[in-house]
Design goal:
Layout: E1 6-9, E2 12-15, H1 28-46, H2 53-59, H3 64-70, H4 74-97, H5 103-120, H6 122-131, H7 137-161, H8 169-184, H9 198-211
Antiparallel strand pairs: 1-2
Length: 214
């Protein structure tokens, strides 16, 4: 009988091929989460198309066959990471828009939460922006539906701030989409160095939206 090998990545151990048929390990879900982190980093760096499951396994110090023990394909990894990524942001945003504070302060907090989330989840956000079209149709539809929820949250917030200006649905949606365009692409240039903290950036972004640039 072939001796089982153990591969280590981050805080977890990957049992070798000899253990493949055994029951799930106690940290099965944690290992899957770690694999998704590694996959997100590789997708963000090299692109989904240019990354295969062998690359992900190598980065995890695990064999290709061991990767298939946790995920059936790299497409399954992409679907899970992006589905969870957008769903988590919807949960954060939902709490923020219902907070019992002035809507202008909520707008600033809404921006800050997005900027922090995008920075902390930079790899996943990069993959969402650049590789979402690789998702299976049904998963992409779910992601799009959640993104529309986010736009809806922002539209509702804009109506609270200025009901007359944003009573027209198209006007509210257009402004919300422009704001999301600003937020979504910040990851391409922002680095938390010097005096421009995420908090300062959120202040500037909300001030610009509420009062204009000049």
């Amino acid at each position: 009988m072939r001796e089982a090998r153990v591969f280590r990545t981050n805080h977890f151990s990957f049992a070798g091929d000899a253990d493949m048929a055994r029951t799930k390990s106690e940290n099965f879900d944690d290992i899957r989460a770690t694999i998704l982190d590694v996959a997100a980093a590789l997708f963000a760096k090299n692109g989904f198309r240019n990354t295969n499951i062998i690359d992900i396994g190598a980065a995890c110090n695990a064999s290709k066959s061991r990767m298939y023990h946790y995920f059936p394909s790299k497409e399954a990894m992409l679907a899970e990471m992006l589905g969870e990524h957008v769903s988590a942001l919807v949960a954060i945003a939902s709490d923020l828009v219902s907070a019992p504070i002035d809507p202008r302060a909520r707008l600033r907090n809404y921006f800050l939460a997005h900027l922090k989330y995008y920075y902390e989840q930079r790899d996943r956000h990069t993959v969402l922006i650049e590789d979402v079209y690789h998702l299976p149709a049904e998963v992409r539809a779910q992601v799009n539906a959640n993104e529309q929820k986010l736009v809806g949250f922002l539209c509702a917030l804009l109506r609270e701030i200025n009901a007359q200006k944003f009573k027209d649905r198209q006007a509210a949606t257009t402004h919300a989409m422009l704001m999301y365009g600003m937020l979504n692409w910040t990851y391409t240039w922002y680095q938390p160095t010097g005096r421009l903290s995420l908090e300062t950036l959120a202040d500037q972004a909300s001030d610009m939206c509420l009062h204009g640039i000049v």
